[in-house]
Design goal:
Layout (H helix, E strand, L loop, with lengths): L1 H7 L8 H16 L2 H12 L1 H18 L3 H20 L1 H7 L3 H6 L2 H5 L5 H35 L5 H28 L3 H7 L1 H20 L4 H23 L2 H6 L7 H13 L13 H10 L4 H23 L1 H20 L18 H5 L12 H22 L2 H23 L4 H8 L1 H26 L7 H43 L2
Helix pairs in contact: 2-9, 3-9, 4-5, 4-9, 5-9, 5-10, 5-12, 6-9, 6-10, 9-10, 10-13, 15-16, 15-24, 16-17, 17-24, 18-21, 18-23, 20-21, 20-23, 20-24, 21-22, 21-23, 22-24, 23-24
């Protein structure tokens, strides 16, 4: 009954700040009534800064005895960040209950039946979940800095204070945005709390990374982290609005993992031509798809005709309709090469460190055995590249595609770095790239770009599901497209690249640089 009422309510045409504020005010009022949430925030705001101030005084006394005052100077900003982050962590608890908590309390139906847009509802709940912990964070920072100034006379630089303050706000928004998405896609608070680990673990790793940056004194990197988090917020907000469905929130009674249906969907998207909508199939859906295309031919003939269709239609279709992620990956590859070249000026190799003249076959045979590098054989190179690209695809699922791009940027950045080093040492960088990289790179680089681009599409499918598909169906379709491209395009390119790198590239290097 409520679902019919919700379906009949036409949302507003444009988002209204007034409606956002009404939703936020309602949520804040309900939060302030819950002492289980307010009490820990108040205690952390009033007590925790004094504990950190006592820790700071102990650190000062310790380092003064050992004449290492720089440690204290780097330790104070770290404690400032921790003081501001702890109250903000409660924003995750509040945000996880935004939708699923109200559903369990049976108070969500009137809210969803209001004539407001999904964006207004999303922003109102996001602001409400962020406001109270953020106020606690600001008060905690103020108490800590005041006590620290009275006790040891420390005042943070204005730029560093702005950086930490901005990072606290942005971190809170990241956690809230992710938690609201989780809350809108689960059916119980218990399930939402379990899924919150996908938010807590990355944020904990981020805090560790920020602490390393602070202890090294590379404070400019904090701006880059803040910019990256802003991009994550935009992605999460887009994901929340795109995947938000009022009817599904009320219609879902239990979170169920239907492995059989997921397998049928994966088989359907893999076998059928790309772009086909999912349909109800039985367990033999994949085989039926092949038979439907090939008529009554034998199994081998059907398989050959299906492979012919894959290479003549499916792969060109997928490449044509996924040009944007491919272009994005190519852009980042070019940027990585430029960054690697730029770092040569900061970390130049000593002149005369090595010489490329008079190379011989013995130089390749005497290469040191490094555990993380493959052996110079077709098998070793192929499986090394294969596992790296599969690892990047797995990382794309949990990072919205970001980690897969970063992994490719590391390897291509090294190419730019060593090419720049060759120019620095007086060698021709084009000859170096043409001999050491280009022979097998003609096959390996396109394979890596395609695998990374379709891995990025897997991560992006969560934030921008394919039209006519649910989030889960869009994710399965993206995985099927990745598998198809990987099996029939990337793996053949990797095999050719591995053979060339193991057998032809050394000969070309000897021809160019040999005596």
């Amino acid at each position: 009954m409520w679902a019919e009422g919700i379906r009949s309510v036409p949302p507003a045409d444009r988002s209204s700040p007034r409606m956002v504020w009404i939703i936020a005010r309602r949520e804040l009022r309900d939060t302030l009534r819950d002492w289980r949430i307010v009490t820990p925030i108040v205690l952390l705001t009033l007590i925790f800064p004094w504990l950190m101030n006592g820790t700071a005084r102990l650190v000062v006394d310790f380092v003064q005895q050992r004449e290492a005052t720089i440690i204290a100077e780097r330790f104070f900003p770290f404690l400032l960040m921790i003081v501001g982050f702890f109250p903000i962590s409660f924003s995750l608890v509040i945000a996880l209950e935004t939708f699923v908590g109200e559903k369990e309390r049976r108070s969500i139906e009137p809210l969803l039946s209001m004539p407001i847009t999904d964006l207004e509802l999303y922003l109102g709940k996001t602001i409400a979940a962020t406001a109270l912990p953020l106020i606690g964070s600001i008060l905690g920072i103020a108490i800590y800095l005041t006590a620290l100034y009275w006790s040891v006379g420390y005042k943070p630089p204005a730029v560093l204070f702005v950086q930490i303050f901005a990072l606290n706000i942005i971190s809170a928004l990241v956690m809230v945005s992710g938690a609201v998405v989780v809350s809108s896609q689960t059916t119980s608070v218990r399930a939402a709390n379990l899924l919150s680990s996908f938010i807590i673990v990355p944020m904990a790793l981020l805090i560790q990374g920020e602490s390393v940056v602070m202890f090294w004194g590379r404070y400019n990197v904090l701006w880059i982290i803040a910019l990256g988090l802003l991009v994550v917020i935009a992605i999460l907000v887009r994901m929340g609005v795109k995947t938000f469905n009022r009817e599904e929130i009320l219609g879902r009674d239990i979170d169920e993992l239907n492995v059989r249906r997921t397998g049928r969907l994966l088989a359907h998207f893999f076998v059928e031509p790309p772009g086909q909508p999912p349909r109800q199939t039985d367990d033999a859906g994949a085989a039926a798809g092949v038979r439907g295309y090939s008529g009554g031919a034998g199994p081998l003939r059907r398989l050959l005709r299906w492979l012919e269709r894959v290479y003549r239609y499916d792969l060109p279709f997928l490449l044509r309709h996924n040009w944007l992620p491919v272009a994005v990956v190519v852009l980042f590859v070019v940027v990585a090469v430029g960054i690697g070249w730029a770092y040569v000026a900061r970390y130049p190799l000593p002149q005369g460190l090595f010489s490329l003249e008079n190379l011989s076959q013995e130089n390749f045979e005497s290469l040191p055995d490094v555990s993380f590098l493959p052996s110079l054989t077709t098998r070793g190179i192929f499986f090394h590249n294969l596992w790296v690209l599969l690892l990047a695809a797995g990382a794309a699922v949990i990072s919205l595609g970001v980690l897969s791009i970063l992994m490719l940027m590391v390897s291509t950045g090294l190419v730019g770095f060593f090419a720049g080093q060759m120019a620095w040492l007086g060698f021709d960088p084009l000859a170096f790239v043409g001999a050491f990289v280009l022979p097998h790179g003609l096959f390996e680089i396109p394979a890596a770009i395609l695998a990374t681009a379709f891995a990025v599409r897997i991560g992006a499918s969560v934030t921008a599901p394919r039209e006519g598909l649910t989030v889960g169906e869009g994710l399965v379709a993206a995985i099927a497209d990745f598998v198809k491209v990987f099996l029939f395009l990337v793996i053949p390119l990797l095999l050719v690249a591995a053979f060339v790198e193991a057998n032809l590239t050394p000969q070309i290097v000897l021809w160019v640089y040999g005596g």
